[in-house]
Model the fold of this input.
Amino acid sequence: QDNSFEQFIINYCNEKLQQIFIELTLKEEQEEYIREGIEWTHIEYFNNAIICDLIENNQTGILAMLDEECLRPGTVTDETFLEKLNQVCATHQHFESRMSKCSRFLNDTSLPHSCFRIQHYAGKVMYQVEGFVDKNNDLLYRDLSQAMWKANHSLIKALFPEGNPAKINLKRPPTAGSQFKASVATLMKNLLTKNPNYIRCIKPNDKKAAHIFNEALVCHQIRYLGLLENVRVRRAGYAFRQPYEPCLERYKMLCKQTWPHWRGPARAGVEVLFNELGIPEEEFSFGRSKIFIRNPRTLFKLEDLRKQRLEDLATLIAKIYRGWKCRTRFLLMKKCQVVIASWYRRYS
Done:
């Protein structure tokens, strides 16, 4: 019920994960259709980049304001931090506070004076400002690190490498918020180099009980997780896409004109292949560098045909091998018979 600094940075991480989900499943997919010259009607979706910017912007973000309060001289309290937020973020459409003197929230009794509220992608969350400064400023002093590094126990020494006199850094250690922000940035950079598969978990009820399905709760989760937009993009778009070269290499055995070797451009080979197989034109589109297949059943059909063709080819190879083996054995026996007969006639 009471959200403090810990829940704030957890929700910040959730926002970044939602952002990368949007980037990889909605934004990137629609941009790929445009790059490939595929006819496409853009589907609108909520991009939570504006919320991420509210939190992590280097000049006006909440974490930047928090670090500035922790570093500035003079009396620093949670109230002065909230006052600074009210000055910088008062006009932001996803930030709410009673102290901001904004007419929308002056009479909002659900929002205490010592709190601020952020409208996250999953809904509004209210944060108690008390403890933000102390928790963000939770630093380990240099002399303590040096004392722990001098311990005889190897594990303790390894846990405090910053205490090594040879690595003394006179700069002030980074705050907890800065460290978490850097860790999240590293995680996002790592994820962007991957090809992730997403599993979205829907909570059917708040009671953690079986056989209870709260329709309103499920619908709320489907809306804020962006699943409706994702389904619309998937239904309007193409289920499978692949560059022409690997596509032709995988399915060329299905057409006599492309098997075993196709001498022309890969795209022309794919066109010949799909025309030979009689696939309806509405089931695929040719991009600049990729073939796009609309329906999964078309892909399943290609895979089934390929599987059957592989079996036929395996049977053909086995038949030719058995024929070669039997003919080789027959020729050897015939040669032996001629030799035996000639020697028999010689001595008879």
Summary: Residues 296-347 form the longest helix (52 residues). The chain has 13 helices and six strands. The domain at 240-299 is CATH 3.30.70.1590 (Alpha-Beta Plaits).
